[in-house]
Design a protein that fits this description.
single chain; 6-stranded mixed beta sheet; globular; 2 domains; binds ribulose-5-phosphate; alpha/beta; Rossmann fold; about 30% helix; Alpha-Beta Plaits; 4-stranded antiparallel beta sheet
């Protein structure tokens, strides 16, 4: 198993490499997380040193603050319906480039930003690659607080075990930037058909968004010890 520091190096390599896909004049969707932080840093360097002219739209307050720090001009997603490119991290990626996201509780906005982009690129270190989703990383689901008990019951009926995500260094639950709770759902019997699972979950009133990103990414940059590989969806 890799140490945290070597993961950090892989994330740095892949984040920097992703910034090479950004061209002058582009509108860029900017994801959330520690891998994306390196992407933002490198984009900031290109803006400053190469005069790269871009407009970013971020998926979280954390990423907005980093963009502010590195001098990346931003626009509000509310005013935006199309992006040239979006780049984001992932918690799990399968061979078809389906992914689980939401480790940073930002997956609802992340999915909106990914969906409005001509191209959505996942960036991750090799530890995020899995043969199938929902076997390792709990599936994050954003829920409206008033629906909590009902949504939990419906998730149990689907074979999942929901656990409300608690904050670190604050009492009580994580509150998403949309004012909602995050349920992290594990499955004792892993779902065979994640598309069906996603449809079933999306049909439950009170669920705002699942962390399943199915068929959205057409490319992934994966950081290995000695290289960064470009993966395309299998098949
Ligand atoms: C945030 C996310 C992140 O992109 C995901 O958790 C990966 O994060 P990291 O790059 O820190 O491993 O989905 O909601």
């Amino acid at each position: 198993m890799k140490s945290v520091s070597s993961n950090k190096e892989l994330k740095q390599k892949v984040g920097r490499r992703a910034a090479e896909f950004v061209k002058d004049g582009m509108k860029i969707g900017i994801g959330t997380g520690s891998t994306v932080a390196f992407f933002i840093e490198e984009l900031g360097r290109r803006v400053k040193e190469e005069g790269l002219s871009i407009q970013g739209v971020t998926t979280s307050l954390g990423s907005s603050l980093l963009c502010l720090k590195y001098g990346i001009p931003l626009m509000e997603s509310m005013h935006c319906s199309h992006l040239d490119l979006a780049v984001d991290g992932a918690d799990e990626i399968d061979p078809y480039l389906n992914a689980i996201k939401g480790g940073g509780a930002a997956h609802t906005i992340e999915k909106i930003i990914a969906s409005m982009a001509d191209e959505f690129i996942l960036i991750a270190d090799e530890t995020k690659l899995v043969p199938a989703l929902c076997r390792k990383f709990p599936l994050p689901i954003e829920v409206i607080p008033a629906s909590l008990s009902y949504v939990e019951k419906r998730i149990r009926e689907l074979g999942g075990t929901p656990e409300i995500r608690n904050a670190v260094r604050k009492d009580g639950p994580v509150i998403s930037e949309n004012g909602n709770f995050i349920l992290d759902v594990t499955f004792s019997t892993p779902p065979e058909d994640v598309e069906l699972l996603d449809r079933q979950l999306q049909n439950i009133p009170g669920i705002v968004e699942t962390g399943l990103f199915l068929g959205i990414a057409k490319k992934a940059l994966i950081g290995y010890e000695d290289s960064v590989e470009i993966l395309l969806p299998k098949g």
